[in-house]
Amino acid sequence: MTLFSIPEAALDSQATATHPKTNVWVSANAGSGKTHVLSERVIRLLLNGTPPARILCLTYTNAASAVMQSRIFRTLSSWNELDDEQLQKTLSQLENEPINAQKLTYARQLFARALETPGGLKIQTIHAFCESLLHYFMLEANIAGHFELLDDINRKKLLQESRRQLLEHKDAQSSLKHLLKVVSERSFNQLLYEATEKQHKLSDFLSSLLSENEEEKLRALFNLAPDETNQQLLEKIQQIAHLPLYALTHCQTYGNQNLKDMIAKFSQLAEASCETTIINIISDIYFTTAGEPRSFSRLSCKKADEIWPFIQQMIEDKQSKLSVLLEKYQCLKSVTLNRAAFQICAIYLKIYTNLKKTNGFLDFDDLIERTLHLLQRKGASQWVHYKLDSGLDHILLDEAQDTNPEQWQIIQLLAQEFFTGHSQRDNVRTLFAVGDEKQSIYSFQGAAPENFAANGRMIQKKAQQAKQKFEKIQLNYSFRSTADVLKSVDLVFETPENYKGLSAENTKTVHEAIRVHSPGDVILWDALSKEKNEFPDDWHVTVDHLDTPAIHLAEKIAETIAGWLHKGEMLPAKGRLMRASDIMILVRKRDEFVSALSRALKQRNVPVAGADRLQLTNHISVRDLMALARFVLQPQDDLSLACVLKSPLFALTEEELFQLAANRTGSLWQSLCMHASTHLSFKDTFESLSKYRNLVDKMPVFEFYSHILNNDKGRQKILARLGSEANDVLDAFMDYTLTIQKTGLPGLQAFLETLSTSEPEIKREFDQNHEEVRIMTIHAAKGLEAAVVFLVDPGSAIWHPQHAPHLLKISLNNKHLNDEQGFIWCPNAEFNTKPSEKALSHLKERAEEEYKRLLYVGMTRAEDRLFICGYNGEKISSDTWLQLVKKALKPHAVPIKGPAEDIAAWRFHITPSSSTPINQEASYIECPTFPPLPDFFSHKLPEEPALPRPLKPSVASLSIEADNELFSHSKQFSISPVLGEINTNRAFSIEYGNIVHRLLQYLPNCDPEKHRDYARHYLNTKASHWDESQREKALHHVWQILDHSYLKPLFSDNSRAEVSLMGIVKIRGKEQAISGQIDRLYITKNSIIFADFKTGTPPANETAIASRYLLQMALYRKILQVIHPNKDVQALLVYTKEAKIFELSPEKLDALLDEIAT
């Protein structure tokens, strides 16, 4: 491992940034220790007496919050392990001043203080902070106190319901009718989607636009005069477009064929009556398809030279005038379209907002908007600030470059009391922000790099006005990357065209390496392009073979990584062998390359974490579970059954599936049924599938899949084939089943339909400690690092109009509208106008700038080695990542052998390779020695005996007569005594017994005068399929029992029905758990009477009673004696037929128990 020293300048900058009494604005390069500085500043604030509850640290992600909190607690806890001398040295270095004994004692207490603070240290995302604030001030914010965050599943449901209500809304019908005449359903859906994404800004704009004079305001957006009408414009356009007769005659006589064809269109124009046709013909005559003026200079012959110049000049004048008029016509058409679109958006957003309010939901945008409104609200804001002023002393902001304008407003409002000089307390209150404009890559969330610098200047001005200390610090030293990687970054962003938009000042990057002597590499691989195949229909190639540059590159990267890990590649800078967790592959988008690379790595036995984000229904494990659901719902679905049989759940081979499928006469399920009786290999599969078909009608969706994955070890089987990546997918799938089970329609069919249509996406958080290669987008890799990074360029265009939003932001200089920003809707090229083209041009420029910032973030993730490679599509784009890096580094790099003969490669490095041989067994961490392990570590622990299942008294005799091992195994008998009777219809006997028992259970609790009415109603409902004689017979038996004088106590108010019992009884020398249910129980002060009802044929006398019944009653009596040791227990066996009652002898029952005890 290469050691390095930290320059004094870097230490001084960190000390200034962490000073607890200074407002600080830090601009930090990638890898310069932002998290370390933030954590250290919090520690210094605590050390200087700030209560933990008065510090608010806002991070960008929950992961960053957890990392920072872990670092702080680890540091504070370590102080308790140091002696006084060591702690004094540590604190002196931190504070840069001597430390007294009192402060030493205080420092040792900080860990406990931080832990015991109610709510803990407030290190959280801004959304989490806003959520807690709204819960605290729910009345002031005018929201429901029980509100919940809107998750993706419920959001989709609300949006679907909002769309349905919109289409039925009476006020939206005219706008819908106009809109759907001119745009597709896809454009309409895109409008609703974008309206939801921009809901708050759009709502503010719409409330101003549609309040009054909306037509005039819309015209102003497109720079149209209020009095211009569509008909007037059309007449002007037609008037100007027509050529004089002499000009037409001259062109027809002397023009070439192209001009004659053009002149012929004037005849079409004269006959046209449709407005759209007229505009299209005029545009086709005077302008190209791209909208440029058509050239007429070479359309006439030489004989017409004298007159043609005058005609040509006339045509060009008409082109100039028509260009203006056609633009106005286009704008007027867009005004009508936008008016309808905005009316629809207003209704739609109102519906969506009301649905959220009704269901108690707030989304992430609502958290910010409601908090901002709370802090600005007149009257309430003073109270909120008063409460906050007593609770916040210091605000720290991480990743400040990704904070959007609304979030900046919240932070400024929270901190405004810091700079007034009139707060409740006299102590210094500070604001700290750290960020890097070069890493601002979340423009789709409203972040802009210029906001960071602008807010820094604003805070600096406020601090200076309040005469407080303010420091602006630049952290250029990088602790992460080697000098080779950092130099490559500086070379790429050295030229103005590359660093434009990288920061607000538009300056080139400057990085200082701390790891100056650590060896590193930057490797360039030339882009792979698709080869032209002279024989595209090669029948030797498999049907599902894919031959694309993306897949070829994935194979080459996988081969390279597999070679490193299997052969033992060294990381000289770290002094050890490379591990899978040292490698990170970064992509711009999740396309076929990601899945191809993951597959290629798995094929080479390289552990891979899979994609950082994936659609749940796209994963093969979920598809298998969905196929299983389709099969159990429709057993004739052969395709789904085949998928299930091939899945890891059953893992049939191709040959076995062919054996089932080929030459079958019925369905695949019928074939499996037949083969299961003759082939042992299919028997278990058939039994499992049959069981699932039965379970699906008895279990909710979550329990159904839980049984498959857990009870039947389905998860274990899936992980064995698909790897650990499937674990996160299965967890997400089970979470989804539980969510749908709680909020959606019941049943597997409804769940399957919801899952198929919603296609939920899961985001996976990677653990850097897992030994797996990570594949992720650059956005997801923000804040992460790896020793070896592959940056993959997809070769696609930076900007494409079809990916642009349709709802475009425009700047407003409009006296009619209060907002600084407005919106126009441009669903397709047919409605392009100058304002929309200007907005699209601005978006394109910002996209190109962010594209370069993405490149910066991707390159700076690398610690030691950076590989930059890529592939091209059908069209090769210029200025892609690979092209930019290649242009900057190739002059300074040397050619090397590429991953394949047809792939050129170059190596850039400035640090000389280490000349000192490195011991491959050496580790940069000194391993401590441990005492030898105890003996029991090397011996297998004896298996503990399985816990016995409780024995049911009703089947006790059968179990006791069986093998003794039954008591410790999971086999469970469930034979009813009714079946022991001679009966031709067992099902009826069971049903009859159950109904009689229910009547004897519930009738004693009813009004005696209505006993017979209730009983008849119950029988007519539950036994309507019985004969009348059977129902009357059942009633007769029940009345015999209820009216029996001897049994009156058992049906009194103090009696109980269906009493569950459990206890321990010694059987054959072993203690056995017994559980059962007594039909009726009556307890007095000194005695207990219990009865068990039998609906079978009664015996002639007590000696003829079946032994199993006697044992059942003996066990019940024994358990009751254990529970009530001082009471006499009387057992009654009652036969409902003939109302025959047997009072069982206690001596006989005790003797029976003694017999089975040994």
UniProtKB/TrEMBL annotation:
ATP binds at A28, N29, A30, G31, S32, G33, K34, T35. It is an enzyme of class 5 (isomerase). This is DNA 3'-5' helicase. Residues 7-482 form the UvrD-like helicase ATP-binding domain. InterPro entries: DNA_helicase_AddA, DNA_helicase_UvrD-like_C, DNA_helicase_UvrD/REP, P-loop_NTPase, PDDEXK-like_dom_sf, PDDEXK_AddAB-type, Restrct_endonuc-II-like, UvrD-like_ATP-bd. GO terms for molecular function: 3'-5' DNA helicase activity; ATP binding; DNA binding; exonuclease activity. It comes from Candidatus Bartonella washoeensis Sb944nv. The keyword DNA-binding applies. Residues 483-783 form the UvrD-like helicase C-terminal domain. The keyword Ion transport does not apply. It comes from the Bacteria. It holds the Pfam family PDDEXK_1.
